[in-house]
Task: inverse folding
């Protein structure tokens, strides 16, 4: 529950920050976006909406390495590391993508993630707990899952989807704010405090809807990545790996990276709408079917 709350809250905080910036631009610098009509507002909303998500994508590898303490395996120091690099190389060749960077991060939880702005320059990292707890065939299945994310361009698509949704959240919230400010508050001067507060409330509500849409797409891509991992390493190995993940009781990944991990726990009720991953039981059932 806490993990999902933080995921939604972060998206809303980003939108709130963008709204404050736009408010300052209009009221301090005198650049009134609505004077250019809805077309001008949509352009500015797109600049701010896509800006954050694309910058986040561009910095995703750098951010992941530092937040998770990933040690990139440039020169394997053990037989296990040599095997890990070789397995990633073999799977990348099967998926016809460039060789990703291979990393290990210290965590008792069995987890792995892939990130990067380009499919031929990605990062695939696994936890030390996963390497200790899983057999090599199971680890290969997890790697196949992550390699499939890279091959499908899921990181880029997720960033673009977030950018589109941010754009329309900013755009529609300001349209709603303008309507309420003029029709209800009877304020003829665009950009007043009533407009700002109304816009923030509308942005909060629309931001929650946008987060649910992003999570819905994230859940769908997990099923595709599981199928890709099964194609690369065998359905039985992928199922075994997912069953092993059910045993993991470690701390979850930072919420900024949860959408890129393979194991993020479970939730029930309405909070299911904000899960970035389907429940493991559903993923296993889908593979068996």
Result:
């Amino acid at each position: 529950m806490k993990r999902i709350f933080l995921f939604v809250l972060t998206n809303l905080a980003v939108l709130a920050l963008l709204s404050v910036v736009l408010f300052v631009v209009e009221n301090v610098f005198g650049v009134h976006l609505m004077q250019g009509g809805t077309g001008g507002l949509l352009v500015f909303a797109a600049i701010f909406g896509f800006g954050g998500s694309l910058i986040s994508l561009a910095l995703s590898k750098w951010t992941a390495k530092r937040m998770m303490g990933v040690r990139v395996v440039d020169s394997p120091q053990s037989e296990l590391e040599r095997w890990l690099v070789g397995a990633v190389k073999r799977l990348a060749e099967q998926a016809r993508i460039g060789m990703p960077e291979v990393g290990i991060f210290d965590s008792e939880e069995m987890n792995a993630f892939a990130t990067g702005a380009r499919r031929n320059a990605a990062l695939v990292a696994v936890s030390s707990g996963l390497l200790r707890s899983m057999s090599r065939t199971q680890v290969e299945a997890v790697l196949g899952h992550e390699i499939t994310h890279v091959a499908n361009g899921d990181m880029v698509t997720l960033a673009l989807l977030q950018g589109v949704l941010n754009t329309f959240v900013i755009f529609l919230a300001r349209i709603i704010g303008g309507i309420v400010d003029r029709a209800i508050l009877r304020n003829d001067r665009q950009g007043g405090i009533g407009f700002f507060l109304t816009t923030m409330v509308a942005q909060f509500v629309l931001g929650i809807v946008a987060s649910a849409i992003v999570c819905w797409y994230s859940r769908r891509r997990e099923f595709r990545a599981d199928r890709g991992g099964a194609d690369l390493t065998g359905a039985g190995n992928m199922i075994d790996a997912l069953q092993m993940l059910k045993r993991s009781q470690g701390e979850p990944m930072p919420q900024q990276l949860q959408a890129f991990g393979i194991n993020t726990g479970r939730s029930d009720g309405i909070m299911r709408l904000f899960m970035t991953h389907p429940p493991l039981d559903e993923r296993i059932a889908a593979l068996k079917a």
Remarks:
- Residues 1-68+152-289 form one domain.
- Confidence is low (pLDDT under 50) at residues 1-7.
